[in-house]
Design brief:
about 325 residues; mainly alpha; Mitochondrial carrier fold; about 70% helix; globular
């Protein structure tokens, strides 16, 4: 039965992550480009790039005087991508995303579930439940991002490729270019930022478990899936806002160039050159993407676990 439970969580986590990745891919492309310093979405770049963005995305012949500090709307960014690269560009990086999201989420949820069960049996009975959730989330985040970082690195490079269809970089070519330039170690650029991002995972799951427990104790069982969506959306929003700068640093470390060399160096340089707001570039898009993504993922995960577990208990 323990082996079956592990398979259930692997399958549920994989399906949950896949559903969320497909639905929210266009928003992820926008978010990644907003976070980058080499994308046309970066309004601190050369004037020609700023002019190009405003003429195509905003319908203006010249950028306003306060272009450096303006907030880009999601719809305008999506429109810019479609008009300059074609509609298919909204799904750049989806291939590696689908290849990576299922095993990533499967590994994550399986590690989280197994760690939680292990700690529940190992820690003293009077140990706070939050300690179990924190340690389980930390273990799940570390194992997952270590194994799958090469996939996310390739995905980020593809999403930052702004060529139109005829010159669009293919996944295999992207992998070859990375290996030729940086070797195998190059696929792990940004891993330090991912490790710092484990704090987001911890915050997310601690809040999620707490809200889920509170909602389940105050309502009937028929509303559990709504509770999962609410808990997932609230917990991920809080976690994203608190830990967001690590995502900006991770994207900068994964983009082409040698300007950014380490996590703390990247954080300091972004703050120095772009100010506090630079550390939160793309946060609005991230929240719009992550809230439905997490709600879908957690609901799918809990639903699959519920159905498979109940089917087994009825055999």
């Amino acid at each position: 039965m323990p082996h079956y439970d592990a398979l259930v969580h692997l399958l549920a986590g994989g399906l949950g992550g896949t559903v969320g990745a497909i639905v929210t891919c266009p928003l992820e492309v926008v978010k990644t480009r907003l976070q980058s310093s080499v994308s046309h979405f970066n309004l601190s770049g050369p004037p020609s790039i700023v002019n190009r963005f405003y003429s195509l995305a905003l319908g203006a012949s010249e950028p306003p005087l306060n272009a450096q500090n303006s907030q880009l709307g999601i719809w305008r960014c999506l429109r810019y991508i479609v008009e300059t690269e074609g509609a298919r560009a909204l799904f750049k990086g989806l291939g590696p995303n689908l290849v990576g999201v299922a095993p990533s989420r499967a590994i994550y949820f399986a590690t989280y579930s197994n760690s939680k069960n292990f700690l529940t049996d190992t820690l003293p009975p009077d140990a706070p439940v939050s300690v179990t959730h924190i340690l389980s989330a930390a273990a799940a985040g570390f194992v997952s991002c270590t194994i799958t970082n090469p996939v996310w690195f390739v995905k980020t490079r593809l999403q930052l490729d702004e060529n139109s269809y005829g010159r669009r970089k293919r996944t295999l070519q992207c992998i070859k270019d990375i290996h030729r330039t940086h070797g195998l170690v190059g696929f792990y650029k940004g891993i330090t930022a991912s490790y710092f991002g484990i704090t987001e995972t911890i915050i997310h799951f601690v809040i999620y478990e707490h809200i889920k427990a509170v909602l389940r104790s105050h309502a009937d069982e028929n509303n559990h899936f709504a509770h999962y969506m609410i808990a997932g959306a609230i917990s991920k929003t809080c976690a994203s806002v608190i830990a967001y700068p690590h995502e900006v640093a991770r994207t900068r470390l994964r983009q082409e160039g040698s300007k950014y060399t380490g996590f703390m160096q990247t954080i300091g340089l972004v703050y120095k050159e772009e100010g506090y707001s630079g550390l939160y570039r793309g946060l609005g898009t991230q929240l719009v993407r992550q809230i439905p993504n997490t709600a879908l993922m957690m609901t799918t995960y809990e639903g699959v676990v519920f159905m498979l577990t109940n089917q087994t208990s009825n055999l």
